[in-house]
Amino acid sequence: MKDDISTNLKIMGAKSKLVLIILSLILLILEFVFHRHAEVELETLVFFPALYAFVVCIAIVLGGIVLRKLIMRKEDYYNNG
Amino acid sequence: MADLFTNIPPGLIMVLLAMPIAFVPHHYRQFCLLSVIAISAFSMTVGSGVHWEIEVSGFNLILNRADHLTLPFSIVFHIAAALNVIYGWHEPKSLEHCSGLAYAGAAIAAVHAGDLFSLFIWWELTAVTSVFLILASGSIQSKHSAMRYLIIQVLSGMFLLSGAALLFQDNGSLAFERMSLDSVGAWLVFIAFGIKAAFPLLNGWLQDSYPESTVIGTVVLSAFTTKLAIYALARGFPGTDILIVIGCIMTMFPVFFAVIENDMRRVLSFSLNNQLGFMVVAIGVGTELAINGAVAHAFAHIIYKGLLFMSMGAVLYRVGTIKASELGGLYKMMPLTCIFCIIGAMSISAFPLFSGFAAKSLIMSSLGYEGLTFAYLILLAASAGVLHHSGIKIPYFAFFGHDGRHQVKEAPLGMLVAMGMAGALCILIGVLPSLFYSILPYNIDYNPYDAGHVLAQSQLLIFSILAFAFLMTFKIYPPELKSTVLNSDWFYRRLAPAIGLPLLRGIMLVWGSFLCQLRGFINAIWDALDRIMHSPLTGPTVSGRAVLIQAGLLALLLLIGYVAAG
Q: Where are the domains of chain B?
């Protein structure tokens, strides 16, 4: 039963990655099919939302890793004293 | 009779009946709670206008004002209050239910307050009633957290009251209308709102106390206080430029904290803070479209954020922990909770067809129309961040991730019903945005569902998920660790005592030694006097200090008389 969950999770992970990659490709292709909405000038650049989101998300996580070095303390930090 | 129900402010009856309802037996109590909320909601049907105004010692107090801005907040507060009752159906104890009812009532009445003084009364009452939701946890940490929460909330009320007093002095009116930041009074009111809206560095209380509350309590807390502040800002300070800057900081910086936080309900509290940022930016822009966006976002946010807190509450209730490092693999045991959580996650991430999309599009468009490119890009980045920590992290680490080896049952029926209703509302708002837009303050002609807009949003979302998958695959994503992440509450929980206590000790030491010196000096004088009296040069003439003092006073009197006569 427990191993079931672990294997299932692995299969689901692999499947969802595949779906994700296919979806991303479709969305990139759609960019050339019809006009994508843009609120500001910069956004009219090709693939802007896709690239921006990808870069920002990685930057946020890397930022989080740096932040962790600065402000992460032991779980009982406030309870000692 | 009908007048009685319609002229009193909505919410008042909830506050008044909260106490007696505690004595009603468990299941009947839940029905009573729902009925009271329904009666309170009936008061909204009276329509716009000032419905109850009284004069108290020369002050005009407007206790019930309804208009296009109060209506959406009042509606969503009632919905949230009702959902909370259903969510907590399993709980036989009355404390959380009754304080929750009074708290919701106070928030609703605050929305209908037309002057700063009655706003202050309800403002403080939301603090006093909600603190019991944190205390209900019963742990020593929650008790300390509750006290910090109360101090900060009451402090906010003090700012509001002093601001109101100064404004009254300046303008001769207590009316709660649009203000500009050109007087000390307005600034004090602004800070009061800022504390409750969790502005940067004033936000510590939110992430400190909300996750310390009970399963039900956190859900209740998430709805009212901060959104009441958003209402107050939208009423008092629309179009105030500084709000755009404050809001941008609010959307970005909690995102980093949410990525590394281990307590899932604390992750949600950071994400709540980030969502408030979107509303604050929109209020700062202040156009009709932007104010509609802020209100729409607050409305949708209360429901999907409530739903997310509900799902995490259900996990906590069943598993007994809410630490990401200990959870995982629950999707098989709690499938419905998992689905509802994903609906909440998709709503907060603003997937097309979910409520967040209908609401957030208004804000983003308003920024685009005003040409605020920088703010737009910040909010776009924050949107990607929201997806990251609330949209993916919450469902992924709780229900998927790795096998947490827990054997648990699905959430209780009441919780499932409440989550189902909240989820249905999220989808309804997303699918029928025009119905949703019709209750907003201004009439607008806006359609979020053009193909180009949906494509832009889908690219943003799917590539954010892709980034997450990329980071997970290459094991760059920081693992969930048992930890405490420092936040702005550190300033008063650690820094202030660290500086303050030694400082206080130093002052006490100096004061103590000063007193010691003074005592020594006085003793020396008495000793000298005693010596003089015991061995005077002229032989023993006076006996005792009293006589000496009298002689001194007489001499002084003589001197004064002499000077006066001269």
A: 238-483, 489-535, 536-566
